Amino acid sequence: MKKLLSTAMAFGLLAGTAHAEGKLVIYHWFEYIPQELLDTFSEKYDVEVVMDTYDSNEALLAALKAGGIGTYDVAVPGDYMVQIMGNEGLLDTIAEGELANKGNIAPEWADPSFDPGRASSIPYQWGSTSFAVNRDDYAGDISTTDILFNPPAELAGKINMLDSQGEVLAMAALHMGIPQCSGDRAQLSALNDMLQAAKANWASFNSDTAKEVLVSGDAAVGQIYDGFAAKARAEGANVEYAFPAQGYVVWMDNVVLLKDAPNRENALLFMDFLLEPENIAAVSNYARYNSGLTGVEAYLDPTLATQPESNPPAEAGAGVFIEVCDQATQEVYDQIWTNLKK
Amino acid sequence: MAGGAAPGGSVQSETYREARLWLLLPAWVTLGLLTLAPLMIMLVYSFLTKEFRGGVIWEFSLGAYDQFFFDRGLFGDDAPKIEWTYIGIFWRSIWQAGVATILSLLIGFPTAYFIATRPQRQRALWVFLVTIPYWVNLLIRTVSMKFLLRDEGPLNDGLMALGVISEPLGIVNTNLAVQLGLFYSYLPFMVLPIYAAVERYNFALSEAAADLYAPRWTVLRRVLLPAVKPGIVAGCILVFVPSLGSFLAPDLLGGAKNFMIGSLIEEQFKGNAGNWPFGAAASMILLSMVLILLIFSARQSQKGGA
After folding, report:
1. How many CB atoms lie within 10 A of CB A209?
2. Which of B74, B244, B235, B298 is nearest to A183 (CA)?
3. pLDDT tens digits, residue range B270-302?
4. How many independent structural domains does chain B possess?
5. What does the alpha-carbon distance between residue B271 and residue A263 come to, in Å, rounded to a whole number?
6. Is A286 annotated as a binding residue?
7. From CA A15, how far away is CA B10, in angstroms rounded?
8. Partner residue facing A334 (CB), from B150, B173, B272
9. Residue A333 known to bind ligand
10. What residue stretches are annotated with the ABC transmembrane type-1 domain (chain B) (predicted)?
11. Are residues A35 and A107 in the same domain?
């Protein structure tokens, strides 16, 4: 009898966990994963998938710090934000052997500086941030950051910038040839002055509609992610994505296992699912970015490999990650950003 | 009339005396939990030390208010001067909200008057028509507004086809676009209270004034407006206050080039800055301003009533 009772209790407990196991809560960027892929995962593992979305790495961090931790299982922060979230103790560690498909990660992405050894993350997509120019408005050379910060008269007043401190200031540092997160006061003052002067030529700051303003013709130049530029082109805008000689920003979004994930098992299942070439290729075909896995080529839309947005010319500058500044420098960066938008 | 109603009222309160506490509980819980508690959190946070990348450290600090009022240069170690940045942002927001309120009043008052003077059976239909666009999400309405005002949009195309202008007006990404967006977003909040006031207005008073040889303008100014003033004041507050804190219209229509109060505060929580105490302090300063405005208007209306 006693044994029966404890068995019943064990079943009761199992039932409780079984219910929890049937769920996965994703915190993801907007418009960044095809619904069919989520449906496939949901059916294959009999897991109910719930997804909330955010529109910037900083919004993700703020939501998690304001009490979101413990609600979500996985999130998809960019490179520098993985490092920040790791420093803030918001990530769980994936033990060796917990991900069966970890070997599919391409060698160059297996040990990134923002998450050594991939302790908490797997690659999702990577690409670049630069800018696109409408060729109906401007026929000249666009392989220079002058287009954004010191534009020719035809483009002045028709420029949309991303409403994102990290991307704008990193691009500005490349333009001036100074290191990111420089603590040098003369360089920071010069950066502030340069941006103040450049702003006079900018029409707007907008990230969400970075693609739409190019397609509609509201902007002739837009700071933009490579995949968004490819989509704008596919939607009929005569835009060319630039790879400036001064350099451009490279980013990688990563699926991370969050601390106190309520459905840790399913989170790992999902990560393993995204480490299968066929599945991550579906994301790439949808979002028009590159995956960080080996063996995906067979599943990719052939136009993806040849699209100009993914193939920097030989004379392009180097692609650099956005760096994580220390507190003192970040506070000056915040001040510069406020000055820019006051 | 008042005497007749009183006994009934007291009987009722006898009936419910026992249960009164419990019946009021939902109201108190709602007020306490949803209004006072968040305000207290904000007040406390505004006096705490900021934590790098969002969050607070539980140490008392006036840093947030200091940052609001004093400028210590780009690197934070110059001699303090008066900080005009945030005052400027507040002033810009007040200006935008003020223009939007005046626009709403100019359009809203005649609209409300028109509706209130329709035959009884038509009024509900007109009110219904005014509210229809507001069943759609604010974001979508704001984006639609942008499509209307764009250089290649119907407004510019129409005016150019009519030969009124030869080049697009270039309204998008200007202050005017923000003001128009705010005006459009909150217009019903102006129309409905004024409509309610005008509907209760006894038009015999206007006739009496006219019989006493008051010109139309005088009837409007000396008879109608004083009678419906509470509705106008309510409408102005309902348009001005949400306009003051709005960030959708400035972001989408104004190009987010200049912070308004709402976007400044949002940036403290969602941006790189991650300065929660400063965001809380700016919110408290905004709240104080709005409260002063409300107290002022309440006093005015008391005077008007007496």
Report:
1. 20
2. B74
3. 777 678 999 999 999 999 988 998 898 888 777
4. 1
5. 29
6. no
7. 56
8. B272
9. no
10. 90-297
11. yes
* Residue A196 and residue A268 in one domain: no
**CB within 8 Å: A59 and B270:** yes
Check CB contact under 8 Å for B85 and A330: no
| % of chain A exceeding 90 in pLDDT | 79
| Tokens 């038509």 sit on residue | B122
Of A279, A239, A290, nearest to A109 by C-alpha is A290
Of the partner residues A188, A205, A335, the one whose CB lies closest to the CB of residue B255: A205
Rounded Cα–Cα distance for residues B141 and B126 (Å): 20
Span A270-322, pLDDT tens digits = 999 999 999 999 999 999 999 999 999 999 999 888 889 988 998 999 999 99
Kindly list the residues from chain B whose CB atom is less than 8 angstroms away from the CB atom of residue A217. 151-152
A171 and A33 in one domain? no
Neighbour-count burial of B212, counting CB atoms closer than 10 A to its CB (0-12 exposed, 13-18 middle, 19+ buried): exposed
Q: Note whether B273 contacts A334, CB cutoff 8 Å.
A: yes
> Does A33 share its domain with A7?
yes
- On whether any CB of chain A is under 8 Å from the CB of B144, the answer is no
Query: Residues 73 to 92 of B: which have CB under 8 A from any A CB?
Result: 74-76, 85, 88-89
ipTM surpassing 0.90: no
- Locus of tokens 């007043």: A157
Q: Is A184 on the interface with B (CB under 8 A)?
A: no
DSSP B149-214: HSTTSHHHHHHHHTTS-SS----TTSHHHHHHHHHHHHHHHHHHHHHHHHHHS-THHHHHHHHTT-
**A93 interfaces chain B, CB cutoff of 8 Å:** no
Q: Out of B74, B151, B272, whose CB is closest to A188?
A: B74
Same-domain pairing of A134 and A195: yes
C-beta atoms surrounding A104 within 10 Å: 22
Per cent of chain A over pLDDT 70 is 94
Nearest-Cα distance to chain A for B174, in Å, is 9
Q: What is the CATH number of the domain that holds A280?
A: 3.40.190.10
Same domain, yes or no, for A79 and A181?
no
Q: Which two tokens stand for residue B138?
A: 């604010």
Contact B255 A204 (CB under 8 A): yes
CB–CB contact A203 B255 (8 Å)? yes
Print pLDDT tens along chain A (342 aa).
444 444 444 444 444 444 445 899 999 998 899 999 999 999 999 999 999 999 888 889 989 988 889 999 999 999 999 999 999 999 999 999 999 999 999 999 999 999 999 999 999 999 999 999 999 999 999 999 999 999 999 999 999 999 888 899 999 999 999 999 999 999 999 999 999 999 999 999 988 889 999 998 889 999 999 999 999 999 999 999 999 999 999 999 999 999 999 999 999 999 999 999 999 999 999 999 999 999 999 999 998 888 899 889 989 999 999 999 998 899 899 899 989 988
Whether A204 has its CB under 8 Å from any CB of chain B: the answer is yes
Mutate to test the interface with A, among B56, B257, B263, B269 (most CBs of A within 10 A): B257
- What CATH code is carried by the domain that includes residue B118? 1.10.3720.10
Residue A75 shares a structural domain with residue A222: no
Per-residue CA distances from A307 to A50, A132, A220, A283, A310 (Å): 33, 14, 21, 16, 6
Print the domain residue range for A87.
2-126+253-305
Query: Which residues from chain B sit within 8 angstroms of residue A137, using beta carbons?
Result: none
Question: Which residues on chain B are in Cβ contact (under 8 Å) with A331?
Answer: 76
- Measured between beta carbons, which residues in chain A are less than 8 angstroms from residue B263? 341
Answer yes or no: do A338 and B273 touch at CB < 8 A: yes
A116 with A171, same domain? Answer: no
